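Entry 14: structure prediction run for TLDC2 protein. Input pasted below.
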Amino acid sequence: LPQLGPHLPSRLTQQPWQLLFCTARHGFSLRSLYRSGEEPGSATLLLIRDMEAQAFGAFCAGSIRRSSSFYGTGETFLFSFHQELKVFRWTGRNHFFVKGDEDLLMLGGGSGRFGLWLDGDLNRGGSHRCETFDNDPLSPRGEFCVQELELWGL
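Run finished. Output tokens:
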């Protein structure tokens, strides 16, 4: 988390972090994640470690919630920690930041590809280059199995 500090909006850099959700404590359920992150207005950081011990995630300026359409702002970004921290910021090409329903959480999009997606059981996910962030795939194989996931609030 400390490496991400310089990449966060300046208004948030001194805010204390609070763990809202973790699979170790709350189980593997997208519905539970939505319930934990419902505090409106709080920025959130999604951290994922896959079964190959790769760490990556996303920052959202608001809460992660169910929605019928994409929401979020240009402050949203994806990141990965392969050998070093890589941050993928908004390209300005579209506004496909975050969208979530019962079965799927999607971050970034365009041309049918998502920068990061997670299934309703938080067991499986994927990452592909997308127009929103022009990101490298966050997980080397494209699709991955989740080992652990945390949602932090600011």
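Notes: The mean pLDDT is 93. Will compare against the previous run tomorrow.
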